[in-house]
Each structure stands twice: as C-alpha cells, then as structure tokens.
Please model this.
Amino acid sequence: MTEVAQGQTAGIGEPRRDGRTGRHLPGEGSMWFFVIGDLVIFGAYFVAYMFYRGQHPDLFLQSQARLNQDIGAVNTVMLLTSSLFVALGTSAARSGKVADAVRLFVIALGFGAAFPLLKLFEYVPEVTAGLTPGTNAFFMFYYVMTGLHLCHVLLGLVVLGFVVRELRISPNPRISFVETGATYWHMVDVLWLILFALFYLMR
Amino acid sequence: MTSYIRSPLVIVWALLTVVTVASWLTARDGGSSHQVNIAVTVVVLLIAALKTQLVIWHFMEVRNSPGWLRAVMHLWLAALFALLLGVYFSFR
Model:
C-alpha cells in the first residue's frame, strides 16, 4: 500500500521527458508562440501604465483606493488554486490516470468560474458609483486591462471545457492538447498576478 | 485522489498563497492611507515577480522545457520587472 502510494507520488508533477535531451516542450509550439506574444503585449501595457501613473501619482493613488482590494486578493487565490488543479490534472493525464484527470480539471473549472462571478461583484458597484472608463486615466487602464484579461479568463474556461471533453470522450486523449490548454490557463494566471500588484497593491 | 496532496505542486501552491496574503496585508497595513510608499511598492512588485516565476517554472513546466524557452521566459520576466521598477523610480 505504502509502495503504491509512494510510486504514485513519484509520478505526479514529473513531466514526461524526451529520452535524448531530457527536455520537453509542454503542448503545441504554436501555443507557446501565442503565449509569448501575449506576454510581450501585456508587458508593454504594464510599462505604459507605470509611465502614466508616474505622471499623475495622486490621481492614480486616489483612484486605486476606490477598488475592492479584498475581492482582488480572493480572486488571485481562486486563479492560483485553479492553476494548481490544472497542473495536477495534466500530470494525472500524463500518467494515464484519465478519470483522476477529468475530476481535477472539473475542480479547476469550478475555481476558474468563480473569477468572472467575483469580478461582477467588483464591476457592478464601481460602475453604479459612477466609476467608468471615462472617469480618468486610471479607470481607463483598469477597465481596458482587467476587461482584456477577463476575456482571456472566459476563453480559458472554454479551453478547459474542451480539455475535459477530450479526456472524457477520446479513447486515447492527446496529452499535447491537455498540455496546450493548461499552458494557456497558466498564462491567464500569470497576467493576473501582475495586474493585481499594479492596480490593487502598489503605492 | 488523496495522493495528489503529496505532490510537490501543492507546496508551490501553498507558497504562492502565503505570499499573496503577505502582499495583500503589506498593501493594506502599509498603504491604507494611499500615500506614495516606496517600501510597499518594492515589496509587492518583488512578490509579484516571485509568484510569476513560480507559476512559469513549476505550473507551466518551463523548468523542464528546452533551453530557448527557459531563456525567453527569464528574459521577459527580468526585463518587465526591471522596466516597471525603473519607470517607478524615474518619477520619484
């Protein structure tokens, strides 16, 4: 029993390796092209935000004070937890434990779906309080960048749905497709970690 | 399913969650007056950089990926946070 448990533990979190190089590109190369492009584009937005912020520090600080920092923090934990289950699900799929992988990806979908719901509880009170993209430069950046990110989250949830479908209905699930979906979801997580620091936390 | 609790990935997640709470408390306690606060900014940006690196390295599995991808991701992360801190301090 202990041996079995230890054997399983050893297999989890250990990616399949290329026999020749010992290295492995998770998922499709085309997805990595897209991920790197997205990271560079968002990176340019992040630096532009910092530049505008530097020119109007008081305006940005006062506007930041209007955001709901608590929902921002809870949403960060939601995405991190979702990413954990995606990573565990990917490892399970790779070790051939398809039923486990399905369960782990469904849990990941649940935590991921909490994000847009909680975001509604942020956007609605803000908009009803009269804070819109037209309010000032801070809120323009805030709505455009968190809105763009939210589109990524919604697309990510659809992608995770297709991963679950692949695992459930395909007799031989394609691991590269599972990894590709996982890579996209983790990128969504990465972008939020930086958005959270820039919009909610920095002073 | 319970065997997954012992995965190294869970330790990474626990660390990510702890530093998220730490950065949230830092901003709340150190910046509740919403004044310019260089110490809070540096701490939350460095924590964000650490979290980004942890997700890229362990969850995205860049740790075990080909050298070119590890180089690209390191370069992106280092350049981004150097620029963010550089722009922030250029206005101080």
